[in-house]
């Protein structure tokens, strides 16, 4: 936890203390408490967490890049029915204890792994305690038996909802403290996205609990986990297919980088800046992900532009510029058949439009320009200004921000500019150490959406060599402003 902000350390410590207070009354329960069931459920939950490490189930094997982990593909909450069975079977303090061993030993991301494990255990223990209290207060109490099963549906649903609500509340707090998310958006969607799955897990947990106390005993309860494991394996397969789709998209980006070497890394950075804007605006995570694709693929249409034009060192003729300005339409045609991109396709087509209608390819105005395109336009211009080119050094971030503000309202959507500025103030900007221009010192200059008022600092007056035409003032190599 050494590298965490002080606020995050304090928050995690406070939640860990609350978890300890939830479990502490277990000491007074004595030998008559169901300690054997507590131990069995805790070991079962820990085993389920370890299953996520198995490459054949959904994780990946250890590599030189890092240890094995299944968290990227096998869902972390798939073993929640075990915890919710404990909620139905055990007193609240013991229910809180069942989550601790699995949370402390389960797979997590390598970065700050210790802090992540502590947080995982600290959050799950109060959630289990609260769920067990709600189960008890709503009429559910051991011993459980099969005839009681229909009557316990409501208490089990209430317990699962309480479990979900506590986790959502705690997760939102750690996003504010550790990730510095804005308070107004940190909790947005956390409860609604997870409530449905947790209600299903609550029903599965109740079934496990009833079978656990039935004449068939605990081994019968394991049968409930089999369909859960199968469905999660299917989920992992779908995740792998999605990862393959993403690899295909990255191959397209790499092809653009090879063809237009002076902007290598630019697409990834535009995707990153687009995500920063989207999160500041409070977009749902599924939209944020699509917008990231839009940023990464915004220049994929350059594959249809002759390489000699992209690498031409002298000024472009009006005809050559018109050819380069076709790249948004080429990009839209390339990705037209990729269904999961959704709104990203409109961003690829329209990211060079301007609010004042002087952009291309269709000269759209104001809010007729798709929202995603307005986001990508700001991210594109910001990265171009803060990246080194062969004819000028990178602008400092404050200078680039000031230029975006000057162009807000005419070229860029002011709302998107404000969102990027707010995100930069909160998170900073950390581009790659080696830019494409440094890797290719002889590369030609470009525009990439850079807004300009008058001469470009450090450009040596070369903007004067750009031939006149109908394009907006300040158009660069690809016709961007």
UniProtKB/TrEMBL annotation:
Residue ranges of every copy of the HD domain listed in the record: 263-385
Domain HD-GYP: 241-436
Pfam families in alphabetical order: HD_5 (PF13487)
Species of the source: Streptomyces kronopolitis
Record PANTHER family: CYCLIC DI-GMP PHOSPHODIESTERASE TM_0186-RELATED, LIPOPROTEIN
Signal peptide location: 1-18
InterPro entries hit by this protein: Cyclic_di-GMP/3'3'-cGAMP_PDE, HD/PDEase_dom, HD_domain, HD_GYP_dom, HDIG_dom
Residues passing through the membrane, by range: 82-106, 118-139, 151-178, 190-212, 218-236
Protein name, entry field: Metal-dependent phosphohydrolase
NCBIfam families: HDIG
Location of the region described as Disordered in the Swiss-Prot/TrEMBL record: 435-481
Presence of keyword tRNA processing: no
